[in-house]
């Protein structure tokens, strides 16, 4: 249970965009300042609401990419532009530092990792499903815990990798963190594995064996999550230890 | 085929109504008896339409429906035998 989530009803807060970091040609990380932010656990998400001048408003859920630190009120979201989307093109292409949106959260108390948890962790990401898993990797580093983490990240091409530099750096510097990227369409030069969808062999080689009883977090488009969860269950992982988050769409 | 997302996506809309996070609450499906967190429901209607429908991941029957109007929220939980809140 999310006892850390403050027991009061959720309200919309003004969030000012402070900084934008380009991740790929279609995804930006947006760092918002949210005065009074109550803190969050990695894996939680927020709802973002946009309101037009005529009063029309629309909202979408985004996973939080950042780990919470209690000395600031910053929340980082990584938003992938969906070409015919209603909200993501605005967030990626129009919103500039200094502009505001409304945000409420954090919400969700199930797909979360807590630094006090001691089980080894297997993170399986499809496309932008890596976002909440990155929050877990960042929170692990910030809490200086040594719980072994493995990330298996499936994405189309080398140019589609979110947090590429940071993942490369953390794989070297964060002790006990292994990062494997599985490319489905095109691989970098010199990469041994041919392009293709995530397989049982990938998870056997780069994940944890079921008898380690890892906590497994799978996030991605619905089809990816179904396929990955089936592979994990077939390999002998206990379904109760596999937490999934599907965000619809087909981008991995 | 209609696409669905996880029950986790109900977290925001439900926290408008409840003081605790409902997605980690364990529910029992009235149709097949499966128990699991609300976060594991298959949720339809997130990208269109006036409401959200949560279906059982085991038998696909409707467990809950949430419809929001400008002034009210209607929550229909006819497909759940019980909801267990950890205190």
From TrEMBL, chain A:
The keyword Iron applies. Keywords: 2Fe-2S, Iron, Iron-sulfur, Metal-binding. Residues 10-113 form the FAD-binding FR-type domain. It comes from the Bacteria. InterPro entries: Cbr1-like_FAD-bd_dom, FAD-bd_FR_type, Flavoprot_Pyr_Nucl_cyt_Rdtase, FNR_nucleotide-bd, MRET, OxRdtase_FAD/NAD-bd, Riboflavin_synthase-like_b-brl. Coiled coil: none annotated. PANTHER family: NADH OXIDOREDUCTASE HCR, PROTEIN RFBI. This is Ferredoxin reductase.
From TrEMBL, chain B:
It comes from Hamadaea flava. It comes from the Bacteria. This is DUF6510 family protein.
């Amino acid at each position: 249970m999310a006892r850390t989530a403050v027991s009061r009803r959720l309200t919309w807060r003004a969030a000012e965009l402070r900084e934008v970091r380009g991740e790929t040609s279609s995804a930006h990380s947006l760092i918002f300042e949210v005065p009074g932010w109550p803190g969050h656990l990695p894996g939680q998400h927020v709802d973002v609401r946009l309101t037009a001048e005529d009063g029309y408003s629309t909202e979408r859920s985004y996973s939080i990419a950042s780990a919470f630190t209690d000395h600031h009120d910053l929340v980082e979201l990584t938003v992938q532009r969906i070409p015919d989307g209603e909200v993501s093109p605005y967030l990626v292409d129009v919103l500039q530092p200094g502009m505001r949106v409304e945000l409420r959260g954090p919400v969700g108390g199930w797909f979360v990792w807590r630094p006090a948890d001691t089980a080894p962790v297997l993170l399986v990401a499809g496309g932008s499903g890596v976002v909440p898993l990155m929050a877990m990797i960042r929170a692990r580093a910030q809490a200086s815990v040594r719980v072994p983490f493995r990330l298996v990240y499936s994405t189309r091409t080398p140019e589609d990798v979110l947090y590429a530099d940071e993942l490369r750096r953390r794989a070297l510097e964060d002790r006990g963190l292994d990062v494997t990227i599985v490319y489905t369409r095109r691989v970098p030069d010199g990469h041994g594995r041919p392009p293709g969808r995530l397989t049982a062999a990938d998870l056997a080689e780069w994940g944890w064996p079921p008898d380690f009883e890892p906590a497994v977090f799978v996030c991605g488009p619905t089809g990816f999550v179904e396929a990955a969860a089936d592979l994990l269950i077939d390999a002998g992982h206990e379904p109760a230890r596999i937490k999934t988050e599907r965000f619809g769409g087909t981008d991995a | 085929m209609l696409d669905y997302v996880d029950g986790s996506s109900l977290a925001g809309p439900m926290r408008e109504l409840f003081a605790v996070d409902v997605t980690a609450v364990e529910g029992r499906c009235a149709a097949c008896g499966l128990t699991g967190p609300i976060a594991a429901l298959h949720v339809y209607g997130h990208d269109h339409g006036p409401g959200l429908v949560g279906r059982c991941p085991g038998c696909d029957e409707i467990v809950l429906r949430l419809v929001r109007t400008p002034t009210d929220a209607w929550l229909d939980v006819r497909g759940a035998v019980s909801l267990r809140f950890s205190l």
